[in-house]
Specification:
Blueprint: H1 2-44, H2 50-53, H3 55-60, E1 65-69, E2 74-80, H4 84-89, E3 91-93, E4 103-107, E5 129-134, E6 137-150, E7 164-170, E8 177-185
Parallel strand pairs: 2-3, 4-7
Antiparallel strand pairs: 1-2, 1-5, 3-4, 5-6, 6-8, 7-8
């Protein structure tokens, strides 16, 4: 009887170990598959490559603050503020909004400035990727909203409990309106 009992416990231990290994392999396979699909999506929908935007340098640099939108070929520095001087050369950050957690609000020109980074913001559709880099932090977002708003509507910059990024720009020949794109953080 002792032998049968011992053999039974050993079989259960071996089966448990095999199940644990299978679960571990499946979990890692799914994570790898999601990562691969995301990278394939970015490459298939963009002319920007990792060599072009040098992502590794962004993360290693101590005081880096950038926005990368592969679909519309944007890789630009962000600066604090929304003055004409800032927007003429950079993507501006709305001082009232977060820089890391919550709703990050950014503004850039679409026409008439030295740099018109948000010129093609209207081309973004649900599911497009936006990459935000602040110092050693890198966040990826998926576009959820692309709408026209009134120039007086600042509700999209309100604080949020979730992590999102809000991009705002003017619309050529429509001074009463603004283009607003929002994207939710991707969590893997």
């Amino acid at each position: 009887m002792k032998c049968a009992n011992c053999c039974s416990k050993r079989c259960i231990s071996i089966i448990t170990l095999i199940i644990a290994v299978i679960i571990f392999i499946q979990t890692n396979f799914l994570t790898l598959m999601i990562f691969s699909l995301k990278n394939n999506y970015i490459q298939a929908n963009s002319s920007v490559t990792k060599d072009n935007i040098k992502e590794k340098n962004y993360i290693e640099t101590e005081e880096e603050w950038r926005l990368v939108i592969p679909k519309i070929n944007i890789s630009a520095d962000i600066k604090e503020g929304t003055s004409g001087e800032v927007i003429n050369n950079y993507i501006g950050h709305f001082v009232e909004t977060s820089k890391e957690i919550g709703n990050i609000g950014l503004i850039a020109a679409s026409a008439g400035y030295k740099e018109n980074y948000f010129e093609k913001l209207a081309d973004l559709v649900e599911g497009d990727v936006i990459i935000y880099i602040k110092d050693n932090l890198k966040k990826e977002y998926i576009v959820t909203t692309n709408v026209t708003i009134k120039e007086t509507d600042w509700s999209y910059l309100s604080e949020t409990e979730d992590n999102r990024i809000t991009l705002i720009t003017g619309i050529l020949e429509e001074p009463e309106n603004r283009r607003c794109v929002q994207a939710a953080e991707i969590r893997i």
